[in-house]
User: Fold this.
Amino acid sequence: MQSPTIDPAKTALNYHQAHATDSHHAEHPDLRRFGLIMFLAAEGMIFLGLFGSYLAFRATMPTWPPAGTPELELLLPGVNTVILIASSFVMHNADTAIKKNDVVGMQTWLAFTAAMGGIFLVGQLYEYSHLEFGLTANLFASAFYVMTGFHGLHVFVGVSAIVAVLWRSRVTGHYSSEKHFGVEAAEIYWHFVDVVWIVLFGLLYLL
Amino acid sequence: MTQAQLQETANLPALAEEAGHRNWRDYFTFNTDHKVIGIQYLVTSFVFYCIGGVLADLVRTELRTPDSDFLNPELYNEVFTLHATIMIFLWVIPTGAGFANYLVPLMIGARDMAFPRLNAVAFWMIPPAGLLLIVSLLIGDAPEAGWTSYPPLSLVTGQVGEGIWIMSLLVLGTSSILGALNFLVTILKMRVPSMGVYQMPLFCWSMLATSALQLLATPVLASALILLAFDLLAGTTFFNPTGGGDPVVYQHMFWFYSHPAVYIMILPFFGLISEVIPIHSRKPVFGYTAIAYSSLAISFLGLIVWAHHMFTSGIPGWLRMFFMITTMIIAVPTGIKIFSWLATLWGGKLRLNSALLFAMGFVGTFVIGGISGVMLAAVPFDIHVHDTYFVVAHLHYVLFGGSVLGIFAGYYHWFPKITGRMMNEFWGRVHFALTIVGLNLTFLPMHKLGMEGMNRRIAMYDPKFTFLNEICTIGAYVLAVSTFPFIVNAIWSWMYGPKAGNNPWDALTLEWMTTSPPAIENFDELPVVATGPYDYGMGNRQTVQVPLSDEQEPVLAAGPKSILRADPDPAVAARPEDRH
Assistant:
């Protein structure tokens, strides 16, 4: 009985060694974006856990928010929401710019995005300092501070990522139309933070 | 030519010239090689297994007599809390990650994981988190609210211990999430071009299912722990009824992770068993697709059964019904696996070595745990035995009789690949015999204790339970003794055992197509999938003679089972519709 013929000499399809580098990123397709999306799926589940617990607390209490909770002011958080949503579109322009190899354009749009993120954070701190209830006032107050605070932490990380990309982009050629995963990653993260806020705003202020 | 020779011949070009022996210092540093990280995981978690085992024997020694005479009740609470936390989060879960780290890249023909540095980061979170827990015991303020840490109990048992427990678990959870992300990307994107999903070894399927659970369920535990930490440290009342909070919400969030965690702890070892059984039975695995899909089914169903832990927590009746039914349905995919393994063993040329013995022990004892699981799923029965030793018996039959026996099967099976040397067969069998006797002696009487109403988690009990408890305690000592033959055998074999060669078991999966231990970066060239992963005993069949779909590039042409083939071989095709 003959075995199928596989000539070892013919197995030299070798995409590995063609572009070998130290980091081996060139050896296989770039998986970083896929990895980041997986990470954000896990992050999303943390927020879903918090949202779920909020809805459960809401459902078990006879009145919600508990009696005696002052009404939330809508104007400032509303403006803040508009700024954050708009910043996602601003950020997208940075991505478009770097795809055309326009580094200065990218830097400009990124600077705007970071500034808008900063305004959001300052706005939130201002809101905190003018609220009439503290962290431990009641269940709603606690959930409000923990959820907006946890989201604010993510906004802070997003702004830091954008600033880091800006800092790196001062080296000529660090980002180009071919190679700009850093910009892309910061953008995906920023959109994620934005979407989470939309749900959070709906839950805490509107529902 | 047998299938193993065929596969080995096709992979000669990919074979590295020298085995990858490493300096011992590499294992103590931030190394990005998946094989180093795999060994780091396996050894670290085994150390924690020994620590958790000592704690278990302390618990059993206390329970030898009805009175609280060995440990004071508070220390007893701390010891069983740490025993459970360590065994779950520092032994079984990281050991699964360790095997996966070592094996997945080799099995799919990759040079490393998708994100090697992230991989190392995930590992190095584990030792500090484990040390935190151990230190808490030494400073005399260990967590003592059980591994479930239900509030309001966990809010009043000691702030320092509980805080340490939360911190440690958050770190371990992060490590688990980062590992899972890495496995998912690696399994989905890093396979050699000739390996479709149906050519993946079944261990990769089970890791796919496990990682999906880890990625989606662990973050919910993190949100529960964040809220619990606020209750504990900042004075909020999310889970504290005195301030209007609801402790049941914590239970929902906790079990949303911790029930899937049960599957995170068993699915990797289902995968290991699915490798070990066909190789040592010299038969193709029975029901490849059935085993693969049942892992995914368990993974999905595992997400919608959590409240069966809460039948006595005051949840509505219709919810009880829902969770009872979904829980019972899980027995179906699990049963499919059990019968597939039995059918694989049936009529095989069994090599009854330590690896296969442990694998068969796994199937046997796991079934007992599985059946008591279906009993516990039934609401009326669960209410009767809730929080009794029946539950303890059940969980140890699945976790010790299942996961731990699976881990040992994996150790014996892959030890030659990892170290390049064979383990001693005689002492392996001694280890197996002691383990099986010890495990049944320890956990079988607990079923009866539970049915008669002995409460878990309490240092003192009714004197009428003394006799059975003494048997349990003797069993626990046997289990402790059983570990020594293994430890000595492993260390001695690692240093002086006979050389294993590249493929001592005549296996077909790609990890055996490289040197033992595998060279750094595993393969010199892309390995070839010339046969299916479990085509044992098919060597003399004419049907293997199907021409390759691309003669020029065997790498792309693959074997008779490849989906890349223009014309799949009807006798061995992976998909039923290709067979006739």
